[in-house]
């Protein structure tokens, strides 16, 4: 085993993977996911990542290391697919320094 494998750590602790798996399987999360998407959530990847993390702690296998890295890359890529809901400002509004009129509603 080379030095780079002994220094490498999983992107998350194994307890984090287990916690995410338990949250995914929770009744509240299953209800929310079913209400939102019409299906129950798939928690298979969290379980697989937990198993791979534990295998890494015990055996330091390069296959397990690559599987964890691939899973995290896929998770990050999935999060980046969605555009932001709001357009981000580059500069503050021109009148940012003017005090708000407390007596008038802001919606007018």
UniProtKB/TrEMBL annotation:
Its main location: other. InterPro entries: Pants/Emi1-like. It is found in: Synaptic cleft. Transmembrane segments: none annotated. Signal peptide: none annotated. This is Synaptic plasticity regulator PANTS. Belongs to the UPF0545 family. GO terms for cellular component: synaptic cleft.
